[in-house]
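Q: Focus on the shape:
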Amino acid sequence: MDTISTVAEYLFSSWTGATGTTATTSVVMNSNKSVTANFVKKQYALTIEIEGEGTVAEKVIKAGLASDYNSGTIVELTAEPTGEWEFIEWTGDIVSTENPVQITIDGPKTVKVKFMRYFDYKIPSHDWENLYAPWFDLARITDSLGFTKKDSYNTNSAFADFNFDGYIDIMIQPNVNDGVPVKTFFLINNKHNKFSVDTDFPIELQTSAISSRKTVVGDFNGDGKPDVVRPQGGHDWLGKPTITLSSNDKYLFKLIGNGPEIQPHTVCSGDIDNDGDLDLFFAQAGEQDGFLINDGNANFTWKWISEIIEDFDSGHLYPNNKYGYYGFWSSEMTDVDKDGNVDLILGGSYKDEAYDSMLDGPTVFWGDGTGKFYLNNSTTLFIAKDIDYSNGISISLSHDYAINDVNGDGLNDIVLFSDLRNDQNGVFYQIIIATDKRSFQDKTNELLPDYHRTSTGGNHVWILLKDVDGDGKINIVEGEPVLSIQSGLRQSVNWNWNGSKFEKIN
């Protein structure tokens, strides 16, 4: 009887010249015999777990003597992030931030690799919304999670990575009746844009708030994390703006600034004084318009519009004995002329008579980095009272602006969305093409056919000017691919640039 003992790192496999598959066999010695014990190298599993978006390449550096690896095999692991993702670290049976790394397989191994995607939130709110935030189908997402279509979500939605895993989540405060406090919900992206409501999201509510007309995202306290600012109020309900502010281990929902209680129709953010942080502008069409100037730690000081734009010649008289024009219902901040300074776009309703204390039309106030804007250093995009594209129907109110380089000439162009007088369902787009850094021409008739679209089904609020379909060309779209209305869903208005003009898709 022959018995074989297993040698370290080897396992008995079989006999040659004898029967049996165990380490003990019997041989009848009735002639000369040749018996061979066969051994194989032990094999161990190498398990790779991936957090984030990327892959791991496995390369055998030294084989142990032949997925599992033979014992003693040295494997080189290379983390290969996908797209905008970055390699962060290895954990488990390797703890390292080096890439690549090597591991010796002398037992079962589990290695976890972490990839992370970071976002720059220290940019103007216009740029985050129009250029970088995803074009989420918010209506279908909220509908799938049980939120009612009677609520409008596009004025209160914020898109950002709130739980810091590299995926864009959603924060909403569904609208309720005027004056009734809203609730806050975080819709967490469980990869592949599948969302669930996080009922335990770490947020401390230090105030209540009523519905907002607009929502902006930015990093206001300089910690690299996204914060959310909303004005509150509307239909004669007043309130101070709120901020959902990141801290070390949670978010704080609180009031911001030392300004008045107002009902702003617009808010936007940008670094108007070039001190490295984001400032805010609020307006309610006159009398209580102003800025919240940031000290870098999300501590804000209120400045009346007349303190920042000092050369208005009439209008509402502010406490500093200077004026502010009326009619500011909409605004954006971004570097329109690409000179490194943030510019302010203001509009809303415009003057009909020369004596009206209002702008002639939507106007770009050119920034100089000092924290001041001037009417005498501004460009009016068009004279609103002279507009007549569609059988005598003129602009009633400009709601939103989007800025991007439409035709690829290196200059930023501007698209506007407005209401029309005497047309309750009218949705009106204009395309203003830059001829120089600070010169523009209205090219709506030439470049945007069928610009007057009616019966959109309501809830048309924001527009984007970005490539949403990945064809390398700019689209003009509403803020969501599909919008919710009380009776159901409807497709977003959508035009696609074909190289010479826009073609309507929806």
Notes: DSSP finds four helices and 41 strands in the chain. The two ends are 85 Å apart (CA to CA). The first helix runs from residue 125 to 132. The chain has a mean pLDDT of 89.
